[in-house]
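Q: What structure does this chain adopt?
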Amino acid sequence: MQDPNPDNENAKLKDLSHKQALAYAHDLRKLHTQMQKHFEDTISAAVRAIEAKDEYTRGHTERVTLYSLQIAAKLGFSTNELKILDIAGRMHDIGKIGIPDAVLNKPGALTDAEYAQIKEHVNIGRQIMAPMAFVKDSNPAAFSHHERWDGKGYPEYR
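A:
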């Protein structure tokens, strides 16, 4: 039997719509949390890949990230800026994946040509990260980590 009171029927529909909207919002939050976890796992896997290839890098990425975050926090960076810096710190040496092992892990001094190859890790990292829209805000910091105040850094020499 249909309820003869249209206001009561409208109230029931509003209540049902509200419950569906809450369920949808809950599902979206859960999905966002899962995607964030997958993103963080992907970044961690990339760091492990770098560290597996480069003996020097083992622990370096974690230290750079930790020190950068501590300094930035003291400087008053926002939560969002700290997240961007965290990604940049963890991804800054991703381009070392493209450097030959013989050069990357050479025990002695590098030749000028080998040093030029090492310096290319920044540009290789830029190419690797370019299609990854979710890290675009971190790219400038990741790509300029060898720049110097006196203009003698690389790759831009500024």
